[in-house]
Design goal:
- This protein is mainly alpha-helical.
- The protein has 3 domains: about 90 residues; about 100 residues, no CATH class; about 40 residues, no CATH class.
- About 70% of the residues lie in helices and about 5% in strands.
- The chain has 10 helices and 8 strands.
- Strands 1-8 form a two-stranded antiparallel ribbon. Strands 2-7 form a two-stranded antiparallel sheet.
- A hairpin with a 2-residue loop joins strand 5 and strand 6.
- The longest helix has 29 residues.
């Protein structure tokens, strides 16, 4: 049934799965077992959209599902194994912007499902729902940056990529030890243990990368929050928003409606009995 409903997303999944398996085989021959693990993890992540739809009775729009699948492939296989994070300077920025947009859509749907469920008696304004979607997206972005920082500190990874800058400002450089920032500009090189690194500037250890990631996540979240706002204002008539907002499966929604009707009928019957 899922295959019939999502033919295009299934073909995308099948193609990406084949590419990941091919990449895994190549990594096994190269004895790069860390990348083999990444391939195995990617295979698990590619199944997650279907797993969520089947087990949680949530319908992911085809557009959203395909983008999620491509996002996973782009982040793990292209970004990590093929080193696109290094080869293409904007690769990480693109993915974090897209992540902010998608997480806002998912956060919006969580509230939208409750807002449409009459038994919950929610009547939330479009502004409030947009704010919740924005906050959900930013929270996910912050938690991911915590994860990157933890991996860098504990396992000595470099998930928070360094940035070469020419100017720094620090109170630690004040010769009198006061809270006065001292600015050093036009930095041309960094020397470690007497050896020049030839970087052409100072090596910032992840701060600029983290703030850039959060900023573009902010942009993606803001964009979808506006889209979601007008979607609610138009009472669900926006075609673009529907492509990104998960919803309850139709059969599940019908089941909830049946349960609600049966509850109402039972209440009316009990009330009639008491009157008699």
């Amino acid at each position: 049934m899922e295959l019939r409903e999502h033919k295009s997303s299934f073909f995308v999944y099948a193609a990406l799965r084949a590419l990941v398996i091919l990449c895994m085989i190549l990594q096994i021959f190269n004895r790069n077992y860390e990348n083999v693990f990444l391939c195995f993890l990617t295979l698990i992540l590619l199944v997650m959209p279907s797993f969520i739809q089947v087990n949680f009775k949530i319908e992911l729009p085809t557009t959203l599902e395909i983008i999620i699948l491509l996002f996973i492939f782009a982040a793990e296989i292209l970004g990590e194994i093929q080193e696109y994070y290094i080869k293409i300077s904007a690769w990480d920025t693109i993915l974090h912007t897209l992540n902010g947009f998608l997480m806002a859509a998912i956060g919006f749907s969580l509230v939208d499902i409750l807002n449409r469920e009459e038994r919950m008696k929610f009547q939330l304004s479009p502004v409030f729902m947009s704010i919740v979607a924005f906050c959900f997206s930013m929270t996910v972005g912050v938690i991911w940056e915590f994860f990157e920082y933890g991996m860098d500190c504990i396992l000595q990874f470099d998930m928070q990529k360094d940035t070469v800058i020419q100017t720094i400002s620090s109170v630690m450089l004040d010769p009198e030890g006061r809270n006065v920032p001292m600015v050093i500009s036009d930095i041309q090189d960094v020397v470690i243990n007497g050896q020049s690194l030839g970087l052409g500037g100072y090596l910032d250890i992840g701060l600029h990368d983290t703030m850039k990631d959060l900023l573009v996540n902010f942009v993606g979240a803001i964009v979808f929050s506006f889209i979601g706002y007008f979607y609610i204002r138009s009472k669900g008539k926006g075609k673009m928003a529907r492509r990104f907002i998960p919803r309850l499966k139709k059969k599940e929604a019908d089941f909830l409606q049946i349960v609600e009707n049966e509850t109402k009928e039972k209440t009316v019957a009990d009330s009639t009995k008491r009157k008699k």
